[in-house]
Specification:
By secondary structure, the chain is of the alpha/beta class. It is built from 14 helices and five strands. The protein binds zinc ion.
Length: about 325
């Protein structure tokens, strides 16, 4: 199963042999590193250093900061059909012009699944007969959202999501302050989705994750008041409480399954506790969406979860 490391190896080799297609489509779920790989490939194509991309030369640095005049980025954030034909028209305006300072022009089209059918059809003509100096790098979550004719003119590379272990070690590499156990908890809390875990950690949501991981233990000690106090200080908005519930669901669910399979888990949860917790969380999520007060939901939650983990009130 190729992850980002393996695909970098494959793409480097094709580039060295002069076999890289002028249109590359990187397919992968959110969080697998599609954009990172697209930018990496643009650097690898234009870099003048040794072992491209060297990440250090002026070319690599300009691409990293989004300032390279021969690398144009379109799409990205947005919803279905938010990627319009106007962007393709812009591409066509510069497509046949000579590159500014490199030998090639690179067009990166992020989240191509958001392209309207009109935009895809317009792009097709450029993909069919591009000038020799042009390269296209598209990313998408699933190739089925693109026209067959676009896929057939591109070489598709599929990024597989990292395993939980890969996600945990990537987190430790990225955030030196995380211990092995914390990285494992983070990875489980986000279902192995490195992008989501990284975002949550950088945005200071780690306390919510760690509270979710400690919840079973706190309640086993009969300290539901501790949980209630921490919840009310960490989860002051509906979004924060939902976040707590999602992480608790992932952690108890995964640890319950792993424990049933006889594996070691960073949080002690029995399969039956996992099932009961998931039922409570589903009711909690419904309550969060309704007009109940957060305080009320939080104390209800502590009481219900205490019942699962054997604490006494
Ligand atoms: Zn470089």
């Amino acid at each position: 199963m190729p992850g980002i490391k393996e695909l970098k190896g494959t793409l480097s080799a094709s580039l060295r042999e002069g076999l890289l297609s002028h249109a590359v489509l990187i397919e992968g779920e959110k969080g697998t590193g599609r954009k990172e790989l697209a930018l990496w490939l643009a650097k690898a194509i234009l870099c003048k250093g040794e072992n491209p991309p060297c990440m250090n030369c002026a070319v690599c640095r300009k691409i990293e900061s989004g300032n390279h005049p021969d690398v144009e980025i379109y799409g990205g954030e947005g919803t279905a059909r938010s990627f319009h034909i106007e962007s393709i028209r812009e591409i066509k305006n510069s497509l046949w012009l000579a590159p500014n300072e490199s030998e090639q022009r690179i067009y990166i089209l992020l989240n191509a699944e958001n392209m309207t059918a009109e935009a895809q059809n317009a792009l097709l003509k450029s993909l069919e007969e591009p000038p020799a100096h042009a390269r296209f790098i598209l990313t998408c979550d699933n190739r089925r959202s693109l026209l067959d004719t676009i896929i057939s003119r591109s070489t598709v590379y599929t990024l597989e999501p990292p395993t939980r272990e890969e996600c945990a070690s990537a987190l430790m590499e990225e955030f030196g302050e995380l211990s092995e156990k914390e990285a494992e908890i983070f990875s489980i809390a986000f279902g192995g989705n490195f992008g989501a875990a990284k975002k949550a950690f950088s945005e200071g949501e780690s306390e919510i994750v760690f509270l979710a991981a400690k919840t079973p233990e706190i309640l086993r000690k009969g300290e539901s008041y501790t949980l209630a106090a921490k919840l009310s200080s960490l989860c002051k908005t509906r979004a924060e409480l939902s976040e707590f519930l999602e992480r608790l669901l992932n952690i108890t669910g995964r640890c319950g399954i792993d424990r049933a399979a006889g594996k070691n888990t960073p949080v002690r949860v029995t399969p039956i506790e996992a099932v009961k917790t998931s039922e409570i969380i589903e009711r909690g999520k419904t309550a969060v969406l309704q007009n109940c007060s957060l305080e009320l939901i939080e104390s209800w939650l502590c009481m219900e979860l205490s019942g699962v983990f054997g604490g006494n009130l």
